[in-house]
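Batch manifest, entry 17 of 40.
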Amino acid sequence: MNFLNVLIFFSAISFLIYGIAYFVSTNMKNEFKRFGLEKFGILTAVLELTGAFGLFIGIQSYTVLVFASGGLALLMLLGVGVRIKMKDSLLVSLPAFFYFLLNTYILYKTLG
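Output type: structure tokens
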């Protein structure tokens, strides 16, 4: 298993956990309420789960990997934007920024 595959698996497992967490954790739902984005919580969780499965499938399918990593990078870029708008601290915003960079890197390596 090469380094890129390790990153893909790490990101996929992370988004699988984040997606499921929305449905089982009140903390995740409360964050969306705090953001004023309560109506987008389920959509975001479904996109995270779809992206996670897309990354897993993307190990075997270049096209799926491009869409999954690109979609997750975009989702996390929007997440960073929300964190900035809410004036959250750097520490609180760091995970969204990290996953934005991670999935952008996966996309870059896949396209390159």
